[in-house]
Amino acid sequence: MPGETSVARFQTKPISGARDFLPLDVLRRQYVIDVIERVYQSYGFEPLDTPVMERLDTLLGKYGEEGDQLIFRVAKRGAKLQRALADAPTQDEIADAGLRYDLTVPLARIVAEYSNQLPRYFKRYHIAPVYRADRPAKGRFREFYQCDLDVVGSSSKLVEAEVLNAGAQVLQELGFHGRDASGFLLRLNHRGVLRGLMEITGVPAGLESEALVAVDKLDKIGLDGVEKELRSRGIDQTASTALLDLTATAPEETDAALCWLEEKLVNSDNGAQAVTELKNVVTLTQTGPAADHIRIDPYLARGLSYYTGPIYEIEFPTLSGSGGAGGRYDDLIGMFSNRSIPACGFSLGLERILLIMEERGLFPQKLAGQPQVLITNFDSETLAANIELAHALRQTGLRVDHYPDPDNLGRQFRYAEERNIPVALLLGGNELAAGTVTVKDLTSGEQESVAHADVADHLRAGLH
Amino acid sequence: MPGETSVARFQTKPISGARDFLPLDVLRRQYVIDVIERVYQSYGFEPLDTPVMERLDTLLGKYGEEGDQLIFRVAKRGAKLQRALADAPTQDEIADAGLRYDLTVPLARIVAEYSNQLPRYFKRYHIAPVYRADRPAKGRFREFYQCDLDVVGSSSKLVEAEVLNAGAQVLQELGFHGRDASGFLLRLNHRGVLRGLMEITGVPAGLESEALVAVDKLDKIGLDGVEKELRSRGIDQTASTALLDLTATAPEETDAALCWLEEKLVNSDNGAQAVTELKNVVTLTQTGPAADHIRIDPYLARGLSYYTGPIYEIEFPTLSGSGGAGGRYDDLIGMFSNRSIPACGFSLGLERILLIMEERGLFPQKLAGQPQVLITNFDSETLAANIELAHALRQTGLRVDHYPDPDNLGRQFRYAEERNIPVALLLGGNELAAGTVTVKDLTSGEQESVAHADVADHLRAGLH
Fold this sequence. Notes:
By secondary structure, chain A is α+β, with helices and mostly antiparallel strands. Helices cover 41% and strands 18% of the residues of chain A.
């Protein structure tokens, strides 16, 4: 409407389900990512990066029908789009690309494309955003980070041990200790255990995946809910009850749980083999960071159908939702290569870990990257000397902001406080004549005079 | 076709114009980004991050008509898409989002949305990929990184000095020194100088932007080419010749060039004011890292119409194309806020800098992040002791890979060499009995026996 332009409100919020990160948010996220990256690297993993967009063909059909609907499609361009639009098109005909849905399908593509350039065991980590056109909700975003760790090429259970240890060490270094309220559990199970339990309780082979889907919801809907769901998915009362009764009696303690499973599954080939593998994983983690956190959980199912061996999930006691999860998936990585390639991995849920760290106050008070010193702006006569001082301090590694305008000092100090800068320096005519700098502590308000040549050392001592 | 499934070739290359980065690529990119980030932070800048997708409305109309065509559009979903597709839709009706085209429009959106939370001067850096549906070519990608540095809120020319110094310091720390073949130039000009030159040579005010577009092509098409283009854009022979003759006589040396401009532009208000500002910028950079690299270039135009003051571009002598560029753009940041907000920034061209660093061999031999030690896999009896060793070494900060399978040693060593791991450790039955570890230098082939307790120190000494 004419005349309204000057009051028009532009929509300046980020797009639905995505977030803007202001400096403190970025620094906190970066602090966590740096720890994850350092630990992943200490386990011999190397970084991989792939485009945000993948061919639509690469993405479709990999995540089930529901997954296909959650892929953000990128439209074709120019004449190709015109042709597609001309003739009652579908969503897949107008698009030729999509935003990546996870970091696992890109890994499978990489393994197929660069097989000659990759080492015998490809140990990669990938920390990057993924995209899902899901309904946004508290804690559920359409753009969110995954922190993946995978080993491609080995069936050794040492791989599981390394991956679990790396995940546990990340959380320990972030401040999660023990397995009680302030710590975390690594719930561990095996797809073969689940299959064995179904065999011996009489769930028909054809209904195993139906049963898995139901069992996977135990956290959300409880035992009664799962039983109802098992029934609704065609599993009869006897089998449902037997399955749930059986797992309800599993002991908590790891060795006892493994013995119990061994006994119960002695007549199931699938089950017996799985228990042997689980025991192997537990033995191999015994001297590492994961040891104190592992809990055998015969209920743990993990929704994704591609898992083939051990599966695991991070649980924060007293909090719902998972902080990460993974497992062995020996048939997925080879999908673009037409061969079977063993693989095993783990993904940390960055968003959830950040949320819990915030609740528990686990971030350091001072985050690396924030400016440490403000050089005030006095007048045009002393500006050159102030610029020189800024440069000299930066050369020593200090993070130095320089107030751009010759404003009144109160305003300059307020700006420093707003930005969390703890110290301001004043270098005016008097200081220049005396060869000093006035150092003002903005927390205490105290100020002192320091010889020009000593300022860097003085600041460094004060900042530590 | 039936029977062909097993030989079907999936397309596993990355999408056109985008790249996969294998570990060494990522580590090299990360090395450069780390330097950029450290220097930016040392100048008091803080990180910002925004979503890869923006509302289509936010992006359209900001980059000219050509730019609008280069925006990757993300399709609407579900019923909204169905409705849009039903009725002879256009490319803008089927999409509700687009991939960001640069990091400047997102900054403008952030300044409008969070004005209450941002400090008086907002000094942010943003290192992230941007997307353009351009025709891919050598060195031109559809997904590429920008490394932006901007100060919002001040008109002080100290801001220009800080931004130029930060850019220069990044390049110096990456190994570019001086202004000759192995170094770089910061070509500096001012939009007001260009305007002034046109005034005094008789280019009509209405044709100034036409003339700017032509002058901006000097690098690519030479003086004759520019003259032809000026003529074809409606600028008469006299003005064209005068404009080109005039700038051709500008002295190389900075102070001389400024004096020359001052003389020539004494009768142009625009021009005189611009020269004063340029002199100010030059004076304020005199004691910083940019000082030795600045060259006044009255031809430099920079294509983007949003610049309002000083403009600059990094040039690598003997190489075409720019390594970064920026300028003052006082009218753009306020576009979502309906107010005028001064701003000045700089963007380093990561891809081009990486390319030149590779050509000149400027990457360090050893990149942080690569594994340093391989623990070999002996047999199942000694595996636990080997896992313990791996864990102990990682605790000291070493990056340790552990070979997953009990393979023959030659194969294990080859794997280490493939991955550039310089040292392998052997801890078998004999070593365990003797309390030692055999340390094999994979470069020389030599091996020695080291007491178990001393291995970490021994490795650390050898790796440095």
